[in-house]
Write a structure and sequence with these properties.
This protein is mainly alpha-helical. It has helices at 2-11, 19-43, 55-80, 88-120, 126-133. Residues 1-120 form the MARVEL domain.
């Protein structure tokens, strides 16, 4: 939802006049589409059919890449906001897009942390670790 807000707010402005917003649009739309695809994959439990793919590792790499690229998109978007814009509504939407890009960056960062824990198996409790140790 946060990524959707970023690109929807920017798409409603004259972003094509500023080259910096092209990068922000690319990052936000690309990661929004891939995130929706991952969501549908997990919703339909398709990851169980493709058991050869290391899903926890793949999600961690995806989230880490999204975090890094959203850092660049947030900095680019925030630096390109000009308060002296001749269209006030463009300024408001671009500033809001910068705010939501920051929130999206934080959300992907938290997802990276939790997917790293899932990949390393740090989220298991004592009961599951004892059962698997004595098999």
């Amino acid at each position: 939802v946060l990524g959707l807000l970023v690109w929807a707010l920017l798409a409603d402005t004259t972003y094509h006049l500023h080259a910096a917003y092209g990068w922000v649009m690319f990052v936000s739309i690309f990661f929004w589409i891939v995130t929706v695809l991952f969501f549908v994959t997990y919703l339909l439990q398709l990851q169980l059919k493709f058991y050869v793919i290391p899903w926890p590792l793949m999600l961690m790499i995806f989230n880490a890449a999204a975090t890094v690229l959203y850092i660049t998109a947030f900095v680019t978007c925030a630096a390109a906001v000009q308060p002296t814009s001749w269209r006030q509504w463009d300024y408001n939407r671009r500033a809001a897009a910068s705010f939501f890009a920051c929130l999206t960056m934080i959300a992907y960062g938290a997802s990276t942390f939790f997917s790293f824990r899932a990949w390393k198996g740090l989220g298991s409790n004592a009961a599951t670790s004892q059962v698997t140790d004595h098999v």
